[in-house]
Specification:
Helices cover 20% and strands 23% of the residues. It has 181 residues and is α/β, with parallel strands linked by helices.
């Protein structure tokens, strides 16, 4: 267990079992981008709490950013550890692929955290909810270091499949851009 696994120590500040369980799950961070919680990233889909044999059974539903995301096993383990730390012993983590994750599910706070971390956040809305319509144009990506729009894509795939590698033509710094999916 690493210190970066949790955004902060969990404090019980809620009344309902479901909200308390959600708050615990929301402390788990993405192992690839440790400034984002799984809630910020939008992969935390649901948390349910039921009583089974005098014990709370917690079921956490998560959706990967893409179906082959290697971080999901670590996130599953980190969720179980977070709940164990809070006294829960019966925890199930369910990985669902449908509906497919979209950058539309990211919180505005999460996008701001990406920016502050040096990763350009996704801009615009995905085509996930659209079936037909106008062709989407690619807009300039703002440099997270100097805010210049004078940037260039170096490669469609960056440090992970959900990011592209860009370089700023003004400050000359390379940076990841979290693609709109």
């Amino acid at each position: 267990m690493t210190a970066a696994m949790y955004i902060s120590d969990f404090e019980s500040r809620t009344q309902t079992p479901r909200q308390k369980a959600w708050d615990i799950a929301a402390t788990v961070v993405d192992p690839e981008i440790p400034v984002l919680s799984i809630e910020d990233l939008g992969i935390l889909r649901d948390v349910a709490v039921t009583k089974e044999h005098e014990t709370d059974h917690v079921k956490v539903t998560i959706t990967p950013t893409y179906s082959g995301c290697p971080a999901m096993d670590a996130i599953r383990d980190d969720l179980k550890t977070a709940f164990e730390k809070e006294g829960y012993t019966d925890v199930e983590v369910d990985l669902v692929l449908a509906p497919a994750w979209s950058t539309d599910w990211m919180t505005e706070a999460g996008k701001q955290k990406l920016q502050e971390y040096g990763i350009a956040p996704p801009t615009g809305k995905s085509n996930a909810a659209r079936h037909a319509g106008p062709i989407r144009l690619t807009m300039a990506v703002k440099c997270p270091q100097c805010s210049s729009l004078n940037t260039k894509e170096l490669t469609r795939f960056g440090s992970t499949s959900c990011k592209a590698l860009y370089v700023c033509q003004d400050c000359k710094e390379p940076f990841d851009y979290f693609k709109v999916l």
